Amino acid sequence: MLKRNVLKTIAVCAILAGSGAFLTACSKGKPEFRGVDISEVDYARDIALPDHNGQQRSLKDFRGKVVVVFFGYTQCPDVCPTTMQEMAEVKKLLGPDGDRLQSIFVTVDPERDTPEMLKAYMGNFDPTFLALRGTPEQTTAVAKDFKIYFKKVDGQTPTSYTMDHSAGSYIYDTQGRLRVYYRYGSGVEALAADVRTLLKEAS
């Protein structure tokens, strides 16, 4: 998709150049991301859920920051803690700009993930990270809007189930616009590079 968008931009710029109407936007070009450029999608526009402190949240609360949204659950054995640890590493790599990064964890297991548990879980990685928790109905609606898959997998007891879920992250720019989809396992350096690109774009 990124390649197709780049080719489309080049073609438009070439036409404008030939007609003597070359635009500044064309000369600058679109930013190149390490993740998947999804700047033109029409979903996941906002995420209105309460955080682990009980405060209702939406993307407008984080204007001026790059926001990374990830869906998971606290009892996840691998993908979730790995992703959150990577986010903590990205924040460190950014140095002073780390304060302009907001990591948001949306639980797909509100039945077990209480606000207290989510707050403690975020504290294991970085105290500025926020977890959002909706009702089961809200969780389903938000996951659908973000095109997130999740499903309960029964365990040996009623409370020992696991959750299958999508493992990618969504990156929003400082104006609250969805820009990049980041596949799990793409690496800390690449993610940090895309965050820097969005922060530089805003400066």
Describe this structure in words.
The protein has 203 residues and is α+β, with helices and mostly antiparallel strands. A six-stranded mixed sheet has the order 1-10-9-4-5-6. It has two domains: 29 residues; 154 residues, Glutaredoxin. The protein contains six helices and ten strands.
Kindly summarize this structure in a few lines.
The protein is of the alpha+beta class and 203 residues long. The chain has helices at residues 2-18, 24-28, 79-93, 115-123, 136-145, 188-202; strands at 36-37, 49-50, 56-57, 66-72, 101-107, 130-132, 150-153, 162-165, 169-172, 178-182.
Classify the fold: give the CATH topology of the largest domain.
Answer: Glutaredoxin
> CATH homologous superfamily of the largest domain, by name?
Glutaredoxin
Count of DSSP strands: 10
- General shape: globular
Q: The biggest beta sheet, please?
A: 6 strands, mixed
Straight-line N-to-C gap: 27 Å
Proportion of β residues? 15-25%
User: What's the helical proportion of residues?
Assistant: 25-40%
- Strand and helix order: HHEEEEHEHEHEEEEH
Q: Total number of helical segments? A: 6
Helix and strand layout, with pairings?
Blueprint: H1 2-18, H2 24-28, E1 36-37, E2 49-50, E3 56-57, E4 66-72, H3 79-93, E5 101-107, H4 115-123, E6 130-132, H5 136-145, E7 150-153, E8 162-165, E9 169-172, E10 178-182, H6 188-202
Parallel strand pairs: 4-5, 5-6
Antiparallel strand pairs: 1-10, 2-3, 4-9, 7-8, 9-10
Considering the chains and any ligands shown, give keywords for the structure.
6 helices; 6-stranded mixed beta sheet; Glutaredoxin; two-stranded antiparallel ribbon; disordered N terminus; alpha+beta; 2 domains; 203 residues
